[in-house]
Write a structure and sequence with these properties.
This protein is an all-alpha fold. 69% of the residues lie in helices and 0% in strands.
Length: 212
């Protein structure tokens, strides 16, 4: 007589919990399979729910991808706020941590970073309003912080704030892409590359502050 296998119980969810559970699982799938390998069907299988269940929270794959990217922007804004709200650090030390944090975030989450800043969503102009409301304040905050850094003497005051913000963010994004794409940089270069960039952006002010 064959033995009966124990019944495999599917996870149970309280009302309202499934969306966050699906998003957490989607982030794991994104890391495992990339954007191309992520689907609502695979997500349902991973969580252990019916294949129609995810559609109650995300009407299609694009909406799911936008929700993942939105979550990424929210997390990054929280991380940045934690850096800037520290006490006992000089403006340059905070800026250095901010720069390092951005690059490390991209290097630690390459698939998510691709989704947040890549062409899959933005080139197709398919971002949801929720994603736009999370993503755009990220750059607005960068502009405000750049303006503050200029007033503190950390960055050149005679440069246009918006253009300086674009150049500094463009530099961070460029380093992040070199690391993710593996063109000629790897994780062992992160600290030196970040420090080099920080020194370049702040060197002029430091030199101007040195006594003649």
């Amino acid at each position: 007589m064959s033995q009966l296998k124990p019944k495999q119980n599917k996870p149970s969810y309280h009302h309202g919990d499934l969306r966050s559970t699906l998003l957490n699982a989607a982030n794991l799938l994104l890391k495992e399979t990339g954007i191309e390998g992520l689907s609502l069907r695979k997500l349902a299988d991973k969580v252990g729910v019916s294949r129609t269940a995810p559609y109650h929270h995300f009407k299609d794959k694009n909406q799911l991808l936008c929700a993942i990217a939105e979550q990424g922007f929210v997390q990054w804004q929280q991380d940045a706020a934690n850096i800037f709200n520290q006490t006992g650090l000089s403006p340059k030390d905070k800026y250095r941590q901010f720069f390092h944090g951005y690059i490390s975030y991209a290097a630690d989450n390459p698939e998510l970073y691709d989704l947040m800043f890549g062409r899959t969503i933005w080139k197709q102009n398919s971002a949801t309003n929720e994603l736009r409301n999370a993503a755009y304040p990220s750059f607005n905050h960068q502009v405000e912080m750049t303006k503050k850094w200029q007033s503190q003497g950390l960055m050149p005051k005679d440069e246009n704030t918006l253009r300086l913000s674009q150049v500094t963010w463009g530099t961070m994004h460029g380093i992040a892409r070199l690391l993710i794409d593996g063109i000629y940089a790897d994780r062992s270069h992160i600290d030196e590359m970040c420090d080099c960039a920080v020194n370049l952006f702040t060197q002029q002010i430091i030199q101007n502050q040195e006594p003649n």
